[in-house]
Fold these 2 entries.
Entry 1:
Amino acid sequence: MSDALRNVEPANPQERKLIFANFAVAIGAFAIAAAMAVMQALSRADVEVPGRSARMYYMSVTAHGVLMALVFTTFFIMALGYAVAQRETGRLGGMKLAWLSYWIAVVGVAMTAWSILTFKASVLYTFYPPLQAHPAFYIGLTLVVVGSWGWVYRMIQEWRIARRVRGDRPVSLAMHATAANAMLWALCTPGVAIEMLFHLIPWSLGIKETVDPILARSLFWFFGHPLVYFWILPAYTLWYTVLPRLAGGRLFSEPLGRMVFAIFLIISTPVGFHHQFQDPGIPASWKLLHTFLTMAISFPSLVTAFTICASLEVAGRMRGGKGLFGWIRTLPWGDPTVSAILFAMLLFLVGGFGGAVNAAYALNSVVHNTAWVFAHFHLTVGSAAALTFMGAMYWLVPLISGRKLALRRIAQIQPLLWFIGMSLFSFTTHLAGLKGLPRRVMSTSYSGALPAQLWEVHTLLSAIGGVVLFVSAVAFVFVMIATFTNKQTEPVGTIEYAEPLHVPEGGFRVMIWDRLGFWFVIGVVLVIIAYAIPLYDLISLERFGSPGFRPY
Ligand code: HEM
Ligand SMILES: [Cu+2]
């Protein structure tokens, strides 16, 4: 590709430090959260783990959900963004702001973790009122968001610098995708910031006596659904731009990729009511509009499935694969990054179908608040995103640090273990959910009160899956620690992206999908259409409210 900034410098020591500082928080959060996870899986199956109690369970589920879904993901995504931007422009600007944002977010994580681990904030990662947490929980999470805004600003700046340098040539697909994700985050985080600043923080400090749960939930899901795309877009970025290269192939269509990320920017936010189908106080017509938009947003994911499969087929055939499916075998499964992503995609395939069930207005009532829900999102954020991120670190940490990937054999089987563990954990839990097993209960027999055989086999298999997952998680953390301290070195490199299969004559030009600023504005308009009236109604109806409850 005629790439004006092709021969960029590798990351310098300051840039490397910034990237690794973000990785370190991600890995630390992941390690603690994984330890919590295995105890939860066992507890649900009525295995007597030491210290097992409802109080412990809800503390643990809160810590696990927050550390995995909010901390591990966000810090990984920020690290990846910095790496992509450094590759794009050769030098990261605004290092002071980047570090300031980092420390704001780290202080936020520390406050939040302290409040959860000292049993002052067992409110689960959705922190729905009237469950009430210690103010440090809300203030801490708000600081994490504020810290991430510094990153958003930097990403958009780097994208603009790259665009200016390139003139009529587009920036790399990875930079385009990263900027789209940063803008998406800028669009949705005000929802949760308003929930925190005007409702939950004053309420937890005692300045406000009551809070309106439906309004708070609506603001949460204004942020909560785009949050899932904030996790998935970086995974897609790696699938489009890095996977085909590591697999030895080409990206099937670059313009399709650009379109996909722009569409996500437009319609990820005005869909939040699909998490509130069962909530009173929101008219069905608005829920229906959000349903239609949700159906629309499955389109870019279907395009992605097609484009990535085609790219992989190109890779498999270039490696000599023959026949209808022979190319799958010839993919480099021994490369831990490739296999992690391939397994992540296989699990996501199932998760995608489950998601279509959740999003259907009527079917949602079958699965709402059952175990199905967390079975589903362990395939999406817990695998499609998380396993891709782990695989990406196997590739990116050695590349930028110049330290060889350590414990390679363990790294090679870790993705397979995750795949086996997650299949056991998630598939059985989906089935149990269909039988009516609730989510967020510490004992699925209700401490013996229910006929256990209802879902005994499911929760047992699920717990075994949880143990396998834990082994996989430990393997990942060990590989990372060993790599960061590895004495064996290799030359420091720069990120290389997959070449597109077809390059138009004269190279790519900036197209309509590259104009992210324009799509951001369209996104804002759609958000106003989807939210202004129902939110206005909720605000003007806010009369009763609830005091806080702290059951544990
Ligand atoms: C190490 C493997 C993992 C195991 C064994 C595991 C297991 C569990 C279990 C048993 C629950 C409690 C469900 C309930 O009672 O409702 C849970 C909740 C959750 N998990 Fe995981 N999990 C793992 C990895 C992950 C990953 C990688 C993520 C995301 C990056 C994740 C995100 C969540 C979230 C957001 C919740 C919901 C908490 C809530 O309902 O408030 N988990 N997990
Ligand atoms: Cu959603």
Entry 2:
Amino acid sequence: MPLSKKEIEALKRQIETRCAQLRTEVHADADKVRGESYADLAGDVVDEGDASVADLLADIDSAELSRDLTELRALEAALGRIADGSYGSCIDCGQDVGFARLEVEPAALRCIDCQRLYEKTYAQPDRPKL
Ligand SMILES: [Zn+2]
């Protein structure tokens, strides 16, 4: 069943709330990565062991940051699809993604069948696309 106007409105609000939350997190993460935590940790490094802990923490923060940014971009793209009317249709088969699925994953691009197939086909996300 295609999404009703009411369902789209509800999902849109959900996405906007999550986007605002993510933007706050991204800013906090970016400050953390740029600023104090790394400088403090690395500032009075006494041996190599401490240095690698500092490196590790910086890496973890960046991974968190890039995860948040990826989610934020996906949600912003979903808002774009709501605006142009393509939201809720599977990008692979054109069927309805379904309200229940979108409620859990509002940025979903595919219906659950196509998503499973996609994940099976692209099981290694780091594989270079040639
Ligand atoms: Zn599909």
